[in-house]
Amino acid sequence: MTVGRLMVQAQAALAGALGLAPSEARIEVQMLLARALGDVARAWLLAHEQDPVAPERQAAFNSLLDRRLVGEPVAYILGEREFFGLTFKVTPATLIPRPETELLVEMALQHLPSPQPSPASGRGRGSLFRVLDLGTGSGAIALSIAHARPEAEVLACDASFAALAVACANAQRLGIANAALLQSNWYSALAAQRFDLIVSNPPYVAAGDPHLQHGDLRFEPPAALASGSDGLEDIRHIVAGAPAHLHPGGWLLLEHGYDQAAQVRELLREAGLVEVFSARDLSGIERVSGGCLT
């Protein structure tokens, strides 16, 4: 069996089993085969389509493909996912970082204040400014911000010890030293700490939403997906607690569901935040909303 023939057969099987578009099935097959062949580059596969595949490598590939054919996400099979130009370790203890969440990181970077020259401002610690990521999971959001802005002091919180272990491993692998981790159920372990920016991609799917039983969502941690009967229970808690943990002029930015922007904006206004806005992702969906503490 050659590399090219193996890819063609696997692509057809994957598209048929999961209803994937041919282009999506092709990319997934390339990712799995690249791993089975010893983490070769995907470009290598295209340049070596006529090469035979050793039986033991084909068996390794078939094992990976079988997992994908029953719906297990590629990110969990490979144990990693690219996000905001960085590669993050992921496990079933964490959500899989998604492209649309990169908008939250982009908005965060736009709303970070300029570094303060001295402690006189009373914000942050010395010339640092402080960022809080609530429900950090794999750490993708917090560590992407910390990587892009090394002068920031980032605190990543999660109620799950298993998720924090993944985030810690990612911080170490990426060599990020300006991010700390804390086990906390939202604000519970933060006492009176205040921040210049709070970001969160919390659970926002309604508990009874049928989408939870389809696709990748079947394999992801339910507690990181669903939030009450309308999907807004955790967002309400985060918004309500934000004024007590923001410096004046600080921002709260939240990812939410495709049809929740208007409700989230209202919650932000009710909490006393101003300059409330929503930003659209590349699909034109209002995906991130935020507001500022006066």
Give your account of this protein's structure.
The chain is of the alpha/beta class and 294 residues long. The protein has 2 domains: 3-71; 92-292, Vaccinia Virus protein VP39 (Rossmann fold, 3-Layer(aba) Sandwich), CATH 3.40.50.150. It is built from 10 helices and 9 strands. The chain has helices at 3-18, 22-36, 42-47, 55-69, 74-78, 102-111, 140-148, 161-174, 233-241, 261-270, and strands spanning 80-83, 86-89, 129-134, 152-158, 179-183, 195-200, 246-255, 274-280, 286-292. Strands 5-4-3-6-7-9-8 form a 7-stranded mixed beta sheet, with helices on both faces. A hairpin with a 2-residue loop joins strand 1 and strand 2. Helix 6 crosses helix 7. The longest helix has 16 residues, at 3-18. It is elongated. The relative contact order is 0.10. The mean pLDDT is 94.
Descriptors:
alpha/beta; Rossmann fold; 2 domains; seven-stranded mixed β-sheet; two-stranded antiparallel ribbon
**What string, H for helix and E for strand, traces the elements in order?**
HHHHHEEHEHEHEEHEHEE
Please bin the fraction of helical residues: 25-40%
Give the count of helical stretches. 10
| CATH level 1 class label of the largest domain | Alpha Beta
Tally of separate domains: 2
CATH topology of the largest domain: Rossmann fold
Question: What is the residue-averaged pLDDT?
Answer: 94
Low-confidence stretches: none
What coarse outline follows from CA principal-axis ratios?
elongated
Task: Give the spatial strand order of the biggest sheet.
Answer: 5-4-3-6-7-9-8
Strand runs, count:
9
Provide the β-strand percentage band.
15-25%
**Full CATH superfamily name of the largest domain:** Vaccinia Virus protein VP39
Question: Helix/strand/pairing class, anyone?
Answer: alpha/beta
List the quaternary state of the chains. single chain
Distance between the termini: 66 Å
Name given to the CATH architecture of the largest domain: 3-Layer(aba) Sandwich
